[in-house]
Amino acid sequence: MTTDFYIQFDEDRTVNAVLYITSKLSRKDFHKIFKILFFADREHLLKYGRTITGDNYIAMNDGPVPSNLYDIFKSVRGNGFFKDKGHFSKYFSVVEGCLLKENVEPNFNKLSKTDLDQLNISLEKYGNMPWNEIRELSHGQAWINTVNNSSISFTDILKEIESDESYISYLKEQNLLKMHLQ
Fold first, then answer.
1. Residue 3: its pLDDT value, please?
2. Alpha carbons 74 and 30: distance in angstroms, whole number
3. Strand partners, 93
4. Average pLDDT for residues 162-170, to the nearest whole number?
5. Which residues neighbour 26 within 8 Å (Cβ) at sequence distance 6 or greater?
6. Would the pTM count as exceeding 0.85?
7. How far is residue 16's CA from residue 5's CA, in Å, rounded to a whole number?
8. Using the 8-state DSSP alphabet, how is residue 56 labeled?
9. What are the backbone angles phi and psi of residue 55, rounded to the nearest 5°?
10. CA atoms within 13 Å, Cβ hemisphere of 24
11. Are 100 and 33 in contact, with CB atoms under 8 Å apart?
12. Residue-wise pLDDT tens digits, 3-31
Protein backbone atom coordinates (compact mmCIF):
# COMPACT_ATOMS: atom_id res chain seq x y z
CA MET A 1 0.00 0.00 0.00
CA THR A 2 1.35 3.44 -0.91
CA THR A 3 1.09 6.40 1.38
CA ASP A 4 -0.84 9.52 0.48
CA PHE A 5 0.53 13.04 0.50
CA TYR A 6 1.62 14.76 3.68
CA ILE A 7 -0.44 17.94 3.74
CA GLN A 8 -0.27 20.41 6.62
CA PHE A 9 -3.07 22.92 7.17
CA ASP A 10 -1.96 26.52 6.73
CA GLU A 11 -4.42 28.68 8.67
CA ASP A 12 -3.05 32.04 7.49
CA ARG A 13 -2.94 31.06 3.84
CA THR A 14 -6.41 29.52 4.01
CA VAL A 15 -8.02 32.53 5.71
CA ASN A 16 -6.45 34.88 3.18
CA ALA A 17 -7.43 32.66 0.25
CA VAL A 18 -11.03 32.77 1.52
CA LEU A 19 -10.86 36.55 1.90
CA TYR A 20 -9.51 36.81 -1.64
CA ILE A 21 -12.22 34.52 -3.04
CA THR A 22 -15.02 36.35 -1.23
CA SER A 23 -13.72 39.69 -2.51
CA LYS A 24 -14.28 38.38 -6.06
CA LEU A 25 -17.63 36.56 -5.71
CA SER A 26 -21.10 38.05 -5.81
CA ARG A 27 -22.67 35.11 -3.92
CA LYS A 28 -20.31 34.14 -1.09
CA ASP A 29 -21.80 30.89 0.19
CA PHE A 30 -19.89 28.08 1.88
CA HIS A 31 -20.47 25.68 -1.02
CA LYS A 32 -19.12 28.00 -3.72
CA ILE A 33 -16.06 28.87 -1.64
CA PHE A 34 -15.40 25.19 -0.89
CA LYS A 35 -15.64 24.21 -4.56
CA ILE A 36 -13.39 27.03 -5.78
CA LEU A 37 -10.80 26.08 -3.16
CA PHE A 38 -11.07 22.38 -3.99
CA PHE A 39 -10.36 22.92 -7.69
CA ALA A 40 -7.61 25.46 -6.95
CA ASP A 41 -5.97 23.12 -4.41
CA ARG A 42 -6.19 20.17 -6.83
CA GLU A 43 -4.57 22.06 -9.70
CA HIS A 44 -1.95 23.69 -7.46
CA LEU A 45 -0.95 20.28 -6.09
CA LEU A 46 -0.57 18.95 -9.63
CA LYS A 47 1.52 21.92 -10.82
CA TYR A 48 3.57 22.75 -7.72
CA GLY A 49 3.49 19.71 -5.44
CA ARG A 50 1.53 21.41 -2.65
CA THR A 51 -2.00 22.62 -2.08
CA ILE A 52 -2.81 26.24 -1.31
CA THR A 53 -4.66 25.58 1.94
CA GLY A 54 -3.09 22.40 3.24
CA ASP A 55 -6.61 21.35 4.17
CA ASN A 56 -7.95 17.82 4.14
CA TYR A 57 -11.04 17.28 1.96
CA ILE A 58 -13.95 15.22 3.23
CA ALA A 59 -16.40 13.47 0.89
CA MET A 60 -19.77 14.92 1.86
CA ASN A 61 -23.13 14.73 0.08
CA ASP A 62 -22.58 17.89 -1.96
CA GLY A 63 -18.97 17.08 -2.79
CA PRO A 64 -15.51 17.65 -1.28
CA VAL A 65 -15.44 19.92 1.79
CA PRO A 66 -12.24 21.33 3.33
CA SER A 67 -12.42 19.93 6.85
CA ASN A 68 -10.54 22.58 8.84
CA LEU A 69 -12.13 25.47 6.96
CA TYR A 70 -15.62 24.06 7.49
CA ASP A 71 -14.86 23.84 11.23
CA ILE A 72 -13.73 27.48 11.14
CA PHE A 73 -16.91 28.60 9.36
CA LYS A 74 -19.09 26.68 11.83
CA SER A 75 -17.23 28.21 14.79
CA VAL A 76 -17.78 31.72 13.40
CA ARG A 77 -21.44 30.85 12.82
CA GLY A 78 -21.66 29.77 16.47
CA ASN A 79 -22.38 26.06 16.08
CA GLY A 80 -18.90 24.63 15.75
CA PHE A 81 -17.13 22.08 17.90
CA PHE A 82 -14.83 24.81 19.18
CA LYS A 83 -15.76 28.40 20.07
CA ASP A 84 -14.34 31.13 17.87
CA LYS A 85 -13.76 33.70 20.66
CA GLY A 86 -13.09 36.35 18.01
CA HIS A 87 -10.11 34.62 16.41
CA PHE A 88 -11.72 34.08 13.00
CA SER A 89 -14.69 36.43 13.25
CA LYS A 90 -12.27 39.34 12.93
CA TYR A 91 -11.72 38.13 9.33
CA PHE A 92 -15.27 37.25 8.31
CA SER A 93 -18.84 36.86 9.54
CA VAL A 94 -21.48 34.30 8.63
CA VAL A 95 -24.87 35.69 7.66
CA GLU A 96 -28.08 33.88 6.78
CA GLY A 97 -26.60 30.54 7.84
CA CYS A 98 -24.05 29.98 5.07
CA LEU A 99 -23.09 33.28 3.45
CA LEU A 100 -19.73 34.83 4.24
CA LYS A 101 -19.12 38.53 4.71
CA GLU A 102 -15.47 39.55 4.74
CA ASN A 103 -14.55 41.95 7.57
CA VAL A 104 -11.02 42.75 6.37
CA GLU A 105 -9.06 42.78 3.14
CA PRO A 106 -6.86 39.78 2.29
CA ASN A 107 -3.21 39.98 3.32
CA PHE A 108 -1.45 39.32 0.02
CA ASN A 109 1.82 38.65 1.85
CA LYS A 110 0.29 35.34 3.01
CA LEU A 111 -0.41 34.14 -0.56
CA SER A 112 2.23 33.27 -3.14
CA LYS A 113 2.04 34.33 -6.77
CA THR A 114 1.19 30.74 -7.70
CA ASP A 115 -1.56 30.68 -5.05
CA LEU A 116 -3.13 33.82 -6.50
CA ASP A 117 -2.72 32.62 -10.08
CA GLN A 118 -4.48 29.34 -9.32
CA LEU A 119 -7.22 31.03 -7.29
CA ASN A 120 -7.84 33.39 -10.21
CA ILE A 121 -8.04 30.48 -12.66
CA SER A 122 -10.49 28.69 -10.37
CA LEU A 123 -12.57 31.85 -9.87
CA GLU A 124 -12.70 32.49 -13.60
CA LYS A 125 -13.69 28.93 -14.40
CA TYR A 126 -16.10 28.19 -11.54
CA GLY A 127 -17.01 31.55 -9.96
CA ASN A 128 -20.15 32.11 -12.05
CA MET A 129 -20.96 28.46 -12.65
CA PRO A 130 -24.44 27.41 -11.50
CA TRP A 131 -24.58 25.36 -8.30
CA ASN A 132 -25.75 22.11 -9.93
CA GLU A 133 -22.90 22.21 -12.49
CA ILE A 134 -20.09 22.90 -10.04
CA ARG A 135 -21.53 20.29 -7.66
CA GLU A 136 -21.57 17.69 -10.43
CA LEU A 137 -17.98 18.52 -11.47
CA SER A 138 -16.77 18.05 -7.88
CA HIS A 139 -18.29 14.57 -7.80
CA GLY A 140 -15.36 13.00 -9.62
CA GLN A 141 -13.85 9.56 -9.20
CA ALA A 142 -11.96 10.53 -6.02
CA TRP A 143 -15.23 11.57 -4.37
CA ILE A 144 -17.05 8.49 -5.70
CA ASN A 145 -14.32 6.16 -4.38
CA THR A 146 -14.46 7.65 -0.86
CA VAL A 147 -16.84 6.58 1.87
CA ASN A 148 -19.20 9.42 2.81
CA ASN A 149 -17.78 11.69 5.56
CA SER A 150 -14.26 10.28 5.10
CA SER A 151 -11.05 11.90 3.89
CA ILE A 152 -10.47 11.92 0.16
CA SER A 153 -7.03 10.71 -0.88
CA PHE A 154 -4.93 13.37 -2.60
CA THR A 155 -3.56 10.61 -4.81
CA ASP A 156 -7.12 9.87 -5.98
CA ILE A 157 -7.76 13.60 -6.45
CA LEU A 158 -4.72 13.83 -8.72
CA LYS A 159 -5.69 10.72 -10.67
CA GLU A 160 -8.84 12.59 -11.77
CA ILE A 161 -6.70 15.04 -13.77
CA GLU A 162 -3.35 13.28 -14.27
CA SER A 163 -3.12 9.77 -15.66
CA ASP A 164 0.68 9.48 -15.50
CA GLU A 165 1.26 7.31 -12.42
CA SER A 166 5.00 7.99 -12.51
CA TYR A 167 4.40 11.75 -12.25
CA ILE A 168 2.05 11.27 -9.30
CA SER A 169 4.69 9.03 -7.67
CA TYR A 170 7.29 11.74 -8.28
CA LEU A 171 5.06 14.37 -6.63
CA LYS A 172 4.52 12.08 -3.64
CA GLU A 173 8.25 11.42 -3.34
CA GLN A 174 9.04 15.16 -3.45
CA ASN A 175 6.32 15.79 -0.88
CA LEU A 176 7.79 13.14 1.43
CA LEU A 177 11.29 14.59 1.06
CA LYS A 178 10.03 18.06 1.86
CA MET A 179 8.25 16.72 4.96
CA HIS A 180 11.47 15.13 6.24
CA LEU A 181 13.43 18.36 5.68
CA GLN A 182 11.04 20.40 7.84
1. 61
2. 10
3. 101
4. 88
5. none
6. yes
7. 23
8. P
9. -85, 160
10. 21
11. yes
12. 688 889 999 999 999 999 999 999 999 99
